[in-house]
Design goal:
Shape: elongated
Structural class: mainly beta
Number of helices: 1
Number of strands: 7
Helix content: 10-25%
Order of helices and strands: HEEEEEEE
Largest sheet: 7 strands, antiparallel
Distance between the termini: 70 Å
Strand content: over 45%
Length: 120
């Protein structure tokens, strides 16, 4: 009885678990929370299993390239809140572009907020 066994996911040590994490994150991105953006851009993000990812697509072929900014409130694995922000540009036809990826997060505290405008 005096033996204390650690159970858990063993982050970074088990290739099978890492593949499972990546697969689950990719699946969640497919069903992720929609972000507020103009009609020319569609975005979705997920935070779980230690990571966060935001992907976006340019969905209106006749719309000009889009310059976008984002803000997202995430919960860290240490129990803190962190706001991540950034900007990116999407040309027409861009699909499922990873615009943010970070680690150390176990959940999202808000949906990502994405604001875009076309550049002529």
């Amino acid at each position: 009885m005096g033996q204390n066994r650690r159970t858990g996911l063993g982050f970074g040590k088990d290739k099978t678990m890492n593949r499972l994490k990546i697969t689950m994150l990719a699946l969640l991105v497919g069903y992720a929370f929609p972000a507020a953006a103009k009609d020319a851009v569609s975005c979705g993000g997920a935070a779980m299993l230690g990571g966060a990812q935001l992907n976006c697509s340019h969905v209106q072929p006749k719309a000009p390239p889009q310059f976008c900014t984002f803000s997202w409130a995430l919960h860290t694995m240490t129990g803190d809140q962190k706001i991540v922000e950034g900007s990116f540009s999407l040309p027409p036809g861009a699909s499922n572009v990873q615009v943010y990826q970070g680690s150390g997060f176990d959940s999202a505290l808000s949906n990502p907020i994405v604001i875009c405008r076309g550049s002529h």
